[in-house]
């Protein structure tokens, strides 16, 4: 059963959200607003012309919203209290590309099928490419704890960096600004600021060892161990269980260990846990 009124409200909400964004990022306001504005117009078009072959990909998304999510074989009544779902994780990436222009283009070419909500340049420029409330395609096949659809619950942030260079201070400062905004607006838990390699350790290595996770944790984004308070874990300590409890997918244990060490040990990313590595892991595990 179609629920055009509900969809209309949803799209209006998204449109007004996009408008709010325009106060912060006037540069991106136009495409965001245009995107949803055209969606609103399309709603009438769809009623008159149901042949989806004639619709643009964007118009098809509106048809999808109208058709899916409802189960017409069950009684349909409408509750009046709802809003849109909020992101609960932030995933940080490096682009592994050479320029911000290259990344923007990558996210606009139909065949690539990848995107992120934000791209941050080496000079600190912040570019919003998608509304926070829509599902960007940045995580790919990934798992964190029991969550297997990270795209549905997260915001993706790409840092313009080729993976072999440090992240400039201006870029990290801008990242902090974005993270501050997202954390306060969506009440994202401290531990839920993580990297792409955390959720896809077999496939990804971003952000690289140059990424300042400790600095982020000091500002309340992500977790760090208590330096100077490391102790050897007890004999009963199970390192694999600890990695799992933190969130790592240990089906490829070596990959999970490397991802953990790239982030917390940095100077050594071999796929074995030394006594020192275990003391770091034990310290972090106790925070969960
Ligand atoms: Zn990535």
From TrEMBL:
<dbReference type="InterPro" id="IPR002502">
    <property type="entry name" value="Amidase_domain"/>
</dbReference>
<dbReference type="InterPro" id="IPR036505">
    <property type="entry name" value="Amidase/PGRP_sf"/>
</dbReference>
<feature type="signal peptide">
    <location>
        <begin position="1"/>
        <end position="18"/>
    </location>
</feature>
<dbReference type="GO" id="GO:0009254">
    <property type="term" value="P:peptidoglycan turnover"/>
</dbReference>
<dbReference type="GO" id="GO:0009253">
    <property type="term" value="P:peptidoglycan catabolic process"/>
</dbReference>
<keyword id="KW-0961">Cell wall biogenesis/degradation</keyword>
<keyword id="KW-0732">Signal</keyword>
<protein>
    <recommendedName>
        <fullName>N-acetylmuramoyl-L-alanine amidase</fullName>
        <ecNumber>3.5.1.28</ecNumber>
    </recommendedName>
</protein>
<dbReference type="InterPro" id="IPR051206">
    <property type="entry name" value="NAMLAA_amidase_2"/>
</dbReference>
<dbReference type="Pfam" id="PF01510">
    <property type="entry name" value="Amidase_2"/>
</dbReference>
<keyword id="KW-0378">Hydrolase</keyword>
<feature type="domain" description="N-acetylmuramoyl-L-alanine amidase">
    <location>
        <begin position="77"/>
        <end position="208"/>
    </location>
</feature>
<dbReference type="GO" id="GO:0071555">
    <property type="term" value="P:cell wall organization"/>
</dbReference>
<dbReference type="GO" id="GO:0008745">
    <property type="term" value="F:N-acetylmuramoyl-L-alanine amidase activity"/>
</dbReference>
<dbReference type="GO" id="GO:0019867">
    <property type="term" value="C:outer membrane"/>
</dbReference>
């Amino acid at each position: 059963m179609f629920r055009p009124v509900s969809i209309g409200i949803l799209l209006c909400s998204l449109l007004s959200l996009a408008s709010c964004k325009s106060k912060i990022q006037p540069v991106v306001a136009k495409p965001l607003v245009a995107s949803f504005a055209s969606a609103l117009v399309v709603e009438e078009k769809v009623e008159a012309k149901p042949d989806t072959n004639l619709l643009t990909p964007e118009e098809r998304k509106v048809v999808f919203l109208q058709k899916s999510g409802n189960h017409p074989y069950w009684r349909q009544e409408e509750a009046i209290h709802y809003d849109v779902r909020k992101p609960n994780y932030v995933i940080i990436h490096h682009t592994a590309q050479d320029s911000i222009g290259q990344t923007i283009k990558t996210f606009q070419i139909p065949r690539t099928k990848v995107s992120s909500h934000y791209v941050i340049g080496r000079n600190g420029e912040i570019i919003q490419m998608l509304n926070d409330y829509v599902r960007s395609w940045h995580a790919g096949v990934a798992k964190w704890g029991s969550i297997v659809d990270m795209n549905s619950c997260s915001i993706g942030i790409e840092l313009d960096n080729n993976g072999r260079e440090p992240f400039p201070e201006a870029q990290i400062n801008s990242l902090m600004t974005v993270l501050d905004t997202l954390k306060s607006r969506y009440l994202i838990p401290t531990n839920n600021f993580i990297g792409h390699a955390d959720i896809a350790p077999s496939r990804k290595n971003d952000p690289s060892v140059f990424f300042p996770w400790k600095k982020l944790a000091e500002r309340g984004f992500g977790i760090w161990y208590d330096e100077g308070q490391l102790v050897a874990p007890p004999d009963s300590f199970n390192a694999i269980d600890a990695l799992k409890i933190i969130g790592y997918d240990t089906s490829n244990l070596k990959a999970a260990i490397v991802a953990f060490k790239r982030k917390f040990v940095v100077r050594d990313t071999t796929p074995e846990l030394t006594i020192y590595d275990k003391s770091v892991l034990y310290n972090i595990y106790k925070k969960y």
